[in-house]
């Protein structure tokens, strides 16, 4: 029996016919990368292939790498296997990887979301026979509100905090989520200040996205300058001495995990906004339907539960172990 077009081994998702890996978690000779988050784009590969917009992100994080860039929809062949990248809607430059050989088509989704966010290239369905999907939020309990509604809640929260004389400290993932939030903030409420980790990546992305003005918080930043304004920081900054300069402040987190109130309590967050760069339950099912696939391989997240449901509704649902993370911020 022929080996499947893509297999999961100890280094990553492997296409033997092309001798190429997709988002490998161990160093390999040739890697096609779906996006710039650390669990999908790792150091040590000899040659990287990724969307043009992901290259500055990867170089910022990984240093001087040997990399080739391609556009969405641009086909390239490796040893007779045809590859192309298609918008995943997850973060800037994120892509689903289409693999075709002798009429058989697989799609590796990487991480993705189906709601357009006004920052990333909007998700585009890709038809295939086998679809490899993440399941970060693969439970019916996860159901997202429209982005406009969530951003209205965030802007109203900021406005009230300013009226109360308090600074708004919003924790958001440094790549993708932070820029998505700042893009839609109502700057009539005040100014946007950023943690260094957020500002570093924002500077990398500014040539590709129209973003509002932000100010990096440094040792010289005055407490009175920040008061009443918006501060965007990575989740790792929560509970550190760095936040002392913000007093008095109110904290919030923008994450899909804020669906569960217990998460907010455990993390000692004052306010939770349910905003994710991954699909909710309905988004996952929509993507699978639109792919017209027969087989679905479920990876990181609630893969067992989601694959069982897919089998119940008529798909060939399976699971596979990976080293990708289910992180969506704090």
Task: Give a description of the structure.
- By secondary structure, the protein is α/β, with parallel strands linked by helices.
- The protein folds into 2 domains: 7-142 and 278-319, Metallo-beta-lactamase, Chain A (4-Layer Sandwich); 147-273, Rossmann fold.
- It contains 8 helices and 19 strands.
- It starts with 6 loop residues before the first strand and ends in an 11-residue tail after the last strand.
- The relative contact order is 0.14.
- The model has no long low-confidence stretch (mean pLDDT 96).
Quick structural overview:
This protein is α/β, with parallel strands linked by helices. Helices cover 22% and strands 25% of the residues.
Strand-helix topology:
Elements: E1 7-8, E2 13-15, E3 20-22, E4 30-32, E5 47-51, H1 54-62, E6 67-70, E7 76-78, E8 81-87, E9 95-101, E10 104-108, E11 130-135, H2 147-163, E12 167-171, H3 177-183, E13 192-194, H4 196-205, E14 215-216, H5 223-226, E15 230-233, E16 249-254, H6 261-266, E17 271-273, H7 281-291, E18 295-301, H8 303-312, E19 316-319
Parallel strand pairs: 3-4, 4-5, 5-6, 10-11, 11-18, 12-15, 12-16, 13-14, 13-15, 16-17, 18-19
Antiparallel strand pairs: 1-2, 2-3, 7-8, 8-9, 9-10
Strand order of the largest sheet: 7-8-9-10-11-18-19
Q: What is the number of independent domains?
A: 2
Query: What proportion of the residues is helical, as a percent range?
Result: 10-25%
Query: In the CATH classification, which architecture of the largest domain applies?
Result: 4-Layer Sandwich
The assigned structural class equals alpha/beta
Shape: globular
Main pleated sheet = 7 strands, mixed
* Residue share in β-strands: 15-25%
Q: Helices and strands, in N-to-C order?
A: EEEEEHEEEEEEHEHEHEHEEHEHEHE
Please report the first level of CATH classification, the CATH class of the largest domain.
Alpha Beta
CATH superfamily of the largest domain: Ribonuclease Z/Hydroxyacylglutathione hydrolase-like
Radius of gyration: 20 Å
Distance between the termini: 45 Å
- Per CATH, what is the topology of the largest domain? Metallo-beta-lactamase, Chain A
Specify the number of helices. 8
**How many strand segments?**
19
Low-confidence stretches: none
Kindly report the average pLDDT value.
96
């Amino acid at each position: 029996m022929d080996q499947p077009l893509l297999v999961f081994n100890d280094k990553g998702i492997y296409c033997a016919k092309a001798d190429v890996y997709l988002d490998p978690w161990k160093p390999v000779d040739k890697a096609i990368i779906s996006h710039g988050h650390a669990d999908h784009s790792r150091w040590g590969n000899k040659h990287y292939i990724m969307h043009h917009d992901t290259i500055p992100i990867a170089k910022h994080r990984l240093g001087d790498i040997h990399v080739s860039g391609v556009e969405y929809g641009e086909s390239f062949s490796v040893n007779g296997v045809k590859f192309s990248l298609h918008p995943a809607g997850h973060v800037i430059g994120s892509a689903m990887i289409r693999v075709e050989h002798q009429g058989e088509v697989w799609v590796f989704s990487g991480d993705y979301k189906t709601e357009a966010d006004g920052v990333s290239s909007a998700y585009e369905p890709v038809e295939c026979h086998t679809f490899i999907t993440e399941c970060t939020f693969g439970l019916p309990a996860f159901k997202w509100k429209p982005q406009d509604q969530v951003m209205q809640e965030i802007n109203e929260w900021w406005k009230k905090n300013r009226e109360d004389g308090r600074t708004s400290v919003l924790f958001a993932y440094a790549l993708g989520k932070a820029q998505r939030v700042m893009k839609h903030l109502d700057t009539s409420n005040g100014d946007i200040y950023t943690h260094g980790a957020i500002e570093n990546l924002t500077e990398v992305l500014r040539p590709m996205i129209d973003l509002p003005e932000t100010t990096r918080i440094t040792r010289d930043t005055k407490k009175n300058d920040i008061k009443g304004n918006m501060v965007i920081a990575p989740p790792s900054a929560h509970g550190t001495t760095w936040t002392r300069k913000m007093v008095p402040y109110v904290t919030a987190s923008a994450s899909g995990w804020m669906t569960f109130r217990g998460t907010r309590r455990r993390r000692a967050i004052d306010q939770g906004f349910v905003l994710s760069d991954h699909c909710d339950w309905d988004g996952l099912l929509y993507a699978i339907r639109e792919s017209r696939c027969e087989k679905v391989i479920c990876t990181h997240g609630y893969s067992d539960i989601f694959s069982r449901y897919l089998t119940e509704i008529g798909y060939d649902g399976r699971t596979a172990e990976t080293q990708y993370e289910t992180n969506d911020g704090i």
